[in-house]
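tool=predict chain=A
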Amino acid sequence: MSFSSDIKQELNKTNSLVNKESVKFELIGYCISANTTVIKGKNIRFSTESDYNINRFSKLLSNLEMNHNIDVNGKNFNIVTKSFDIQKLQYLSIKENEIYLIEEVKKVKDAELKKAFIRGAFLGAGSINNPQNSYHLEIVLSNENNLKILQDILKEFDIYVKELLTKNRYSVYIKDGEEISKILAVIGANKAVMQFEDIRIQKEMRGKVNRIVNCETANLNKTLNAAIEQIASIKKLQKDGRFNKLDYNLKEIAILRIENPDMALAELGKLLKNPIGKSGVNYRLKKIMEIANEK
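tool=predict ok
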C-alpha cells in the first residue's frame, strides 16, 4: 500500500465515532473535498478507490442516521445518500449543486472538532507522497471558498499551506517536512507521525554526512592543488639553479614538501628541525612561490 493508504487505514481504525459532534465535523470535512458531489440539489455522492475510506464515510453517515447505498464501479467505490440532512451539519450549504462551507465554522472554539474537520478533509481528498522520495501533502477541495476556510483553520494550529488555484482544481499543499508532521499529528495519525519523523531524521542525517564528505573532499582537493603548485615552483627553482640560493629555512621546507606531496601544512611543520605551525609553513611555501615567479 501507499503511504497515503496506510494513513487512511490507521485513521479508520483508531478514531472512534462516539462523539456525535466530532462525527459531524469529520463528515463536513469529507463534504468539502473534491471527491464529494451533489446530486439533484439535495443528496451527495462520495467516490474513492480506498475501501477503508468508503467504510469510514459510511460509518459517519450511519452514525448520523443518513441512509445511503454503496456501489462499485471499476476501481471506484461510490456512496450515494438517500437522505442527506444538511441541517444536521449546520455549517454547510448547497448552492447550484455545490457544497459550500459557511464562515461561521471558524468561530467554533472546540479545537478537537476542528481537528475532526481537518481529518475529514484529508480523508476526503488528501494525499501524501512516500517521504522516502519527497515531501508533499495535498488536499483537493471542491471550490475556492472551501479552500480559503480550510486554510484559515489550519493556521489556527500553526500549519501554513500553499494554495493551488486553477480553473478546475482548488488545493492546499505542503512541501515542508515539519509542517507535514504537524498536520499528521493534528488529524490523529500518530503511528504515521512516528514513521514520517523516523524517515525525516534518517534523510537529514544522510544529508549531513554527504555535506561533510563533500566538504572534506573539497578541502582535500584544495590541499592537493596547492601542493602541486608548491612543488612546481620548487622544481622550477631547482631547474634554473636558484634553489641553492634559498636560505636554509626555505630549502628545508621545500625538501620536505617534495618528499611529502600530500601532507597537510601542520604536519609538515612538525617535521622541521625547529617545528613551526601551519601559518609559518604556509608563509615559507608562499615565499618560495613568489621567488619562483620572479623574473
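Residues 212-293 form one domain. The radius of gyration is 34 Å.
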